[in-house]
Amino acid sequence: MRGFENDLIVLDDVPAVTDKLLETVGQYSVAGKQIHDANIVATMLAFGIPALLTHNIADFQRFIKIIDVIPLLPSPK
Question: Structurally, how many domains does the chain consist of?
């Protein structure tokens, strides 16, 4: 991460993120460890970020109606 920190923008957990998180958790019945994924989605929504590049596509499938989920690399076999 240190090598990337000059190229990245870190988004703060502002009240708008909390509002989106509560909305997302209720809408998608998220619980337990899934809260972390929902918080990523809430942050994206609060800051107007439409797409997520990830290796963990399955973790974000439930959110494909509100964000674009793009595989970072082809899935390992």
Answer: 1
